[in-house]
């Protein structure tokens, strides 16, 4: 699925080598061409993985700090009609809006506008001191 450009993925996600093995070096090209190649090979990988019986789940943490290009790439993958059985789970803190917070909200709007896509937000509050103490107590108790 990744063809001769798999190293673009394994350089960013080294543990992916477990699934796709070591990859051949990719020739040097311009930064713009590298971005385009990365986008293409990632979409091909997600497409291939999402065709499997169980599909694929992607978890992206701290989405509020993602750059515009990454948000756009995620949006394109989710909106791609050829990519099926993809579950995207993201976590972000609305009170820590990075420079691209509005772009992140635009990602959500773009996803909502896509047909056949279910999106649900779950707002999780911060743990209180009492909740944290109870969690630690339960983790350390014998039974």
Q: What do these coordinates show?
A:
This protein is mostly helical and 143 residues long. The chain is 48% helix and 7% strand. It contains six helices and two strands. It has helices at 6-12, 17-20, 31-50, 68-79, 101-113, 129-140; strands at residues 56-60, 86-90. A two-stranded parallel sheet has the order 1-2. Helix 4 (68-79) links the parallel strand 1 (56-60) and strand 2 (86-90). Helix 4 (68-79) runs parallel beside helix 5 (101-113). The longest helix has 20 residues, at 31-50. It is globular. The relative contact order is 0.11.
In short:
48% of the residues lie in helices and 7% in strands. The protein is mostly helical and 143 residues long.
Number of DSSP helices?
A: 6
| Class by SSE composition | mainly alpha
Quote the average pLDDT. 83
Quaternary form: single chain
- Number of E strands: 2
Q: Characterize the biggest β-sheet.
A: 2 strands, parallel
- Series of secondary-structure elements, N-terminal to C-terminal: HHHEHEHH
Estimate what percentage of residues fall within beta strands: 5-15%
- State the helical fraction: 40-55%
Shape: globular
Distance between the termini: 48 Å
Uncertain parts: none
């Amino acid at each position: 699925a990744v063809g001769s450009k798999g190293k673009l993925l394994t350089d960013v996600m080294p543990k992916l080598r477990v699934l796709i093995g070591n990859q051949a070096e990719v020739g040097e090209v311009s930064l713009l061409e590298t971005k385009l190649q990365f986008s293409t090979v990632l979409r091909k990988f997600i497409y291939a993985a999402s065709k499997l019986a169980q599909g694929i789940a992607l978890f992206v943490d701290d989405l509020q700090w993602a750059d515009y290009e990454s948000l756009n790439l995620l949006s394109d993958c989710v909106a791609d009609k050829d990519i099926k059985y993809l579950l995207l789970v993201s976590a972000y803190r609305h009170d820590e809006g990075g420079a691209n917070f509005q772009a992140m909200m635009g990602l959500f709007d773009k996803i909502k506008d896509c047909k056949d896509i279910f999106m649900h937000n779950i707002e999780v509050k911060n743990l209180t001191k009492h909740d944290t103490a109870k969690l630690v107590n339960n983790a350390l108790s014998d039974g």
